[in-house]
Amino acid sequence: MTTVTGHDAALQTFDRTTSRWGRLTMIVGLIFSLAGPVYLVFFSGLEVDQTKILTAFLAIAGTFAVIWIVEPLTYYPILGQASMYQAFMIGNISNKLLPSALIAQSAVNAKPGTRRGELAAVMAISGAAMVHLFSLLIFVGFMGTWLVSVIPQNVTQVVQTYILASVLGAVVVQAIVSLKQLRATIIAIVVSAAVVFLLVPAIPSLAFFSTAIAVITTAVLAWFLREKSARLVKDPEGTEPAEPRNR
């Protein structure tokens, strides 16, 4: 018979609470997101019929539908359940929230996919959101127009060109250092290079789907080429096993 400790009971309560309130807040966010379009369609007098709505939806789905599937599958193993609710409500996941979670997990020596890693991600995302709000209030709300006017144009162009690449590059390095899975890392690098330098130049129409292709291919190859005898690495908190450690 399994004995439920106070620690386990607290984690179970945490799961139930985050699941309940996470779903409720996501539903509320969805309602607010759709409130504007619904008003325009039914109350503004615009001649928008079901055919136009369906056509616009299909056009957007044709562009972004792959991301709807790839992003949750990619982020969940690192963020966990509670942080997924936070991340998709806040936004800017790849360039703000994911780096914050990885750095926090590395700082407390927590493996992604473990309870310790999930709690670290929750606190990191909460901190990142607070910093973002205060930054917006100060640098955009109070200093926005003046700050833009005093920054040289060439500096602005450099920031716009390189800031995203530098942030994503730091995330990649942080993920490699944190996960310490050499085999999966090599597979990811080889697949990404093949997609960028071979597949996309050969078939330019696949450029938009390159990220999805690289992610799915890497996941499949990493699974089939994994070390079959790999042991499960125990969560430092002892609550559940983490992912296998590959060599």
Automatic annotation (TrEMBL):
<protein>
    <recommendedName>
        <fullName>Integral membrane protein</fullName>
    </recommendedName>
</protein>
<feature type="transmembrane region" description="Helical">
    <location>
        <begin position="206"/>
        <end position="225"/>
    </location>
</feature>
<feature type="transmembrane region" description="Helical">
    <location>
        <begin position="184"/>
        <end position="200"/>
    </location>
</feature>
<feature type="transmembrane region" description="Helical">
    <location>
        <begin position="53"/>
        <end position="70"/>
    </location>
</feature>
<feature type="transmembrane region" description="Helical">
    <location>
        <begin position="159"/>
        <end position="177"/>
    </location>
</feature>
<keyword id="KW-0472">Membrane</keyword>
<feature type="transmembrane region" description="Helical">
    <location>
        <begin position="119"/>
        <end position="147"/>
    </location>
</feature>
<feature type="transmembrane region" description="Helical">
    <location>
        <begin position="24"/>
        <end position="46"/>
    </location>
</feature>
<keyword id="KW-0812">Transmembrane</keyword>
<keyword id="KW-1133">Transmembrane helix</keyword>
